[in-house]
Amino acid sequence: MSLLGNIIWLVFGGFISGVGYIVGGLTICLTIIGIPFGLQAVKLGIATFTPFGRKIVEDEKANSTLTTIFNVIWLIFFGWEIALVHLIHGLILAITIIGLPFAKQHFKLMIIALLPFGRNLE
C-alpha cells in the first residue's frame, strides 16, 4: 500500500513539491548562515518524495538549546508558511474519502515543516 500511495503522491504533486524544497534549500545554502536551514529544507524535500509508510522520529538532541533556537528561527522565517500550505492542502484533500490518506501525509509533513530540527521522517 505504501508503494502505491507513494507513486500516486509523486505523480500528483509530490515530485514537484520535493524538488521545490530541495531547490529552495540549496538556494538558502548559498549563504554561510543559511546552511543549517537549507539542509533542513533539503531534508524536508526528500521526506516529501515518499511520505507513505514513514513516521516522525525525534532525535535524542531534539530538545537541546541549540536545536530549540534553530527551530524558533525556522518557525519565524520559513516554517509557518510551509506548514500553512500543508494544512490547506490537507484540509482540501480531507473533503473526499479518496483524499483522506493524502491529507494524513500533508498533516504529517506539516509537523516536520513547523519544527524540523531534531525530527526526521523514517
Automatic annotation (TrEMBL):
Regions crossing the membrane: 7-35, 72-100
Inner membrane component domain sequence ranges: 4-54, 69-119
InterPro entries reported in the protein's UniProt record: Inner_membrane_protein (IPR052937), UCP028777 (IPR031308), YccF (IPR005185)
This protein's record includes keyword Secreted: no
Keywords: Membrane, Transmembrane, Transmembrane helix
Pfam families documented for this protein: YccF
Cited NCBIfam families: PRK11770.1-2
PANTHER family: INNER MEMBRANE PROTEIN YCCF
Record protein name field: YccF domain-containing protein
Organism annotation: Spirulina subsalsa FACHB-351
Lineage: Bacteria, Bacillati, Cyanobacteriota, Cyanophyceae, Spirulinales
